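Hi L.,

You mentioned the student needs an example of a multi-chain input paired with its predicted structure. This one should do, with 1219 residues in total across all chains.
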Amino acid sequence: MKSFYRFYQYVLIFLVIAPIVFLCAQSILTNSLSDSETWRFILDHMLVGLVKNTALLMLATVFLSIILGVSQASLICLTNIPAKKILHILFILPLIFPLYVLAFVYVGSFTYSGSIPVFFRSFFNFDLTALFAIKSTMGVAMVFSLALAPYVYLFLRAAFLRIDEKLIFSARSLGQRPFKILFGLLMPQIRPWIYASAILVALEVLCDFGGVSVFNYDTFSTAIYHSWIGLFSLNTAVKLSLIPGLFALLLYFANNFFYRTYKNETKLSRSFVLFELTFIKKTILLMGSLSYCFFSVFFPVGQIFIWASSALSLELNLDYLLIIAHTLLISLGAAVFIALLSLLLVNLQRNYSSQQDRSITIFVKIGYALPGSIIAIALMSVFSLLNINFFATFAFIALLFAYLVRFFSVAFEIQSKAYDLISKKYDWTSYSLGKAKFKTFYKVHLPILLPTLISSMIMLLLEIMKEMPMTLMLRPFGVNTLATKIYELTSEGEWERASISAALLILLGALTIFLSEYYQTKKNEGL
Amino acid sequence: MSYLKIENLSFDYGSINLIKEFSLELAVGEIHCLLGPSGCGKSTLLNLMAGFLRPRQGKISIDDVVLVKDHFFSPPEKRQVGVVFQEHCLFPHLTVAENIKFGFRGGEKQNYLKELLSLIQLTHKAKSFPEELSGGEQQRVAIARALANRPKVLLMDEPFSGLDQDLRIKLRREIKKILKSVNLTALIVTHSQDEAVEMGDRLTVLDETGAYQSGNIQELLERPNSVNVVRFLHSGFFIKGLFNGLEQRALTHNGALAVAPLANFKDREDLKVFIPYTALRPALGPPFLQATIINRYPGKWRTTYELTAENIIGDSMLMDNIQIGGEFDLGESIGFDLKSQNNWIAFS
Amino acid sequence: MMRSMLLLCFLFLHIKATATATPTATATATATAKELVVYTSRKEHLIKDIFQQYTQETGVSIKYKTGSSAALIQTIKLEGQNSPADIFMAVDAGSLWHATNENLLEKVNSGVLKINVPNHLRDTQGTWYGLSIRARTIVYNTKKVKESELSTYENLAHKNWKNRLCLRTSKKVYNQSLVAMLIYELGLVKAKEVVAGWVDNTVEIFSNDTAVLKAIASGQCDVGIVNTYYYGRLLKKDAKLPLKLFWPNQKDSYGVHINISGAGLLKNSKFKIAGLKFLEWLSSKKAQASFAQINMEYPLDFTVAQSDETARWGKFKANTHFNLTHAGKLQKEAIKLMQEVKYK
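Structure written out for the whole complex:
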């Protein structure tokens, strides 16, 4: 069995790495004249600007997201603010927005001709865009952080919940004031989680393509896309993608260095309060949170539905049913497929691996760091090399593989963390009672893990539904997902028509979030 | 007749040689306690026996059935060795009854479940979930679950840690009763001496270096085979002595003492002579040893005194009021004599 | 779990259906095709109806795959012999030129196409043919600009227009073809001056034409350059917008820059005869009306009845001596030029 584990691990790694390595090798080794020219062109004129832009955007977004996430997590976990359940849902709701949807809502609304500046001009005779340009670095960072703060919030909330109450009590008994405890005692404790979420945000920004193109903000991903689509040099695009790709790998290593799995699940009780808020403070903070939620949830949702309703008669037709069906089928099928493959690896790892073995799994996670279009092309190249006509015969398989490469780590991370929470002693107890490894998995692990498993599949589902670049490239004939439909329409500036698909997507997304939360609470009750 | 046989077991934890050629034999129905400080490998021994870990070398057999030998390794699910961990590890998604039945082998009847439940006195909680039970109740269920599998040997790793004192005492007596009633061979790891002494027919004291001594409590207290055993059991103290090879005696400040021929000491070697507390009695005449009380700890049944004396190795001695023959105040000085003994144990 | 299993089954059945419906690679070129496959960067809602019309008339069904030109070209390249595609359709001459450059398109010799498609709107070697025309022209805010102020593309570089111009990004192929035309007409140096002047006068650069139009209408800027159909679409939504098209370079000049939406036959197509028939049909007057009108573009033949909207924009002199094949040939220079003058 151990050899099967090894074999399985290497097969997975191979599947993920091979297409990419192949593509990179091909791009470095085979160079047409025009390719070299284009590469030179990019190097001379664009590279510095790209690095600057991308770095600035990453830093700004990470900074803002961390501030938001820390505040939100502290608010929910450490204070006695009312309506915590509702606030919690509101804080994670932005996950339903793909970056590119939030981008077009804000760009469409805040450019000179958008609804908000028009309002300010007509009522207050005030040019809002003179004060604040939505397409500036800060503008992009702010919009991105609205969409990405939930990740930080979720990470930090999990971190806070692991803190031992007694630590805080002893600090208080020594006379320390709450804020000092927060910054002096708690923050250092949750540092690994802060770093991990910061890295996640940075990676999302690095890989995003749809969002920055709406903002017309030049980052590596737009340059990669442009080299290929605009300048017709795939070669250059691939070379360019090596840079963020390698950087992303670095971030991954850093992440593993910082993040340690804490085996003990000391739970901060739900009623724990560090900051006792007065009525006034509660009101202020509540208002503050709601204003934030206005920008992160209510306004985008509202704008999308207003736009969508204005385009209904023009755009809505039976095709949309098919699009929804395709979106659901593809995402569901892929989510189940990936979750199962990941579960197999996680289980095998638990039983057969040592610490050193585990570091290899970093390679399986590379996929998340790479731009979707590159993964798509890599797969196509491999298939064409093997002379497989995947579009006709294996239409869906290529897309499935692409999703596997890209999203395997999402499932893997969630599952392995949940699995690590089950102490090995449970396994041992089960063995000592006569149950071998598979029976132990089936009778002990699975029932305990099921809520998390389902939750991981749901998160996976959400990510796949939002995915656009790979789906755009690899979809079978006549298949559209909501994401590809949005891209098609936003690239023409048709915000209103795009909003119909966007509305449907966020509805589906909201549904998945609610389901996921439901299973999370079920799990908490069960254990 | 040895039922459980461990022979020359060795195990490395990373680069540390944790278990060094450990050997032990248990008779059927014997309750054996493993005692020692944290990190010395007690739990590792249990894990090796259960089959959760694989030794570098050694042999383990139960009832003449070999479990581990050279390249042969029987996996835990085949060993019929029951385990109860400190964390009890009750499956949270199963009720008490389901947890216990988890260990049932094929063909076990419902009756047995009833028996076990009444054995641990939790029949009324059969349908409860583990989180609804108290610590003591959870531990009892864990034991019942292990018993349900009808193991040949039961291993328990600090089963009563984390429970309050009264409960510990109550539970260990109950468990001993249960074990004896089914004549189950058991190996229990604990760091509580009281527990080890009360529960165990025999004990093994293990130290960080991997050295150990097995035997009943009397042997361990009076004839320790290493300084660490003495230290761990607080069985006595040491005085300096100069070895006289010719006379086979150690010359101490307080007199000459015959030394047991335990080891080959060199002439004029510095020795530590072991004086068990049980060998002291209040001096009637000129004392062998004059000790001063430096600390006094009142207790429920007795008062513990910390004393210091010249020429003892180490800081102090710990004795109770019975041993020193009465209640004294701080700072008081007491003289002690040695009860006569043929020879004394000494170490290098 | 059960439900996802069921859905998975449904999914695989659906895919099987899709898979079996595509043409096999063993069909010969002369066999009667019941189906053609089109890879198109022209958006779905602009081609569905006309494809269906063809099916109704001839019984040949059209399967299509939409995407960006580069992605489609890459796909065709990778698929090689196994490619199911017969026709490549794109929305700019520059893109079609790339397909030719990659040796993907078949040189077609068709009398029908030669007659229907004017010289300057098809590839010099016959690898692709334009099927509808769009103009990239000046649009202005009627409240802020008098028509008399406007004259040529070059004029927009003049200081008069400082902080009054809005442009679409240089990354879009439409602008690249426009600049290619300027290079062709004015020479590299002058063209560079013009574009630099544009950049100087620009208030903001947008990622799409509709945003440019909205910016002009709201008063952020006064003039811009857009494709005519975007103008048409926006006005359809709101006829009250203060926007009007202007046709530059009419007097003693080369005329308005036009571009095409066009298509070509793929070398690896297994149904070349049927494919060619389809192209010829698309260029025919019957199809032209729907093909162009649905997107408010101009048909290849200006004498064909136009939609009401395009008719209202008036007649203009188009640049007919700039063969659009050059749009592709000069694209690299155009991009380089735009980069040098920092046109984002």
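You could point out the following to them. Chain C is about 40% helix and 15% strand. The CA atoms of residues 233 and 296 of chain C lie 8 Å apart.

Best wishes,
N.
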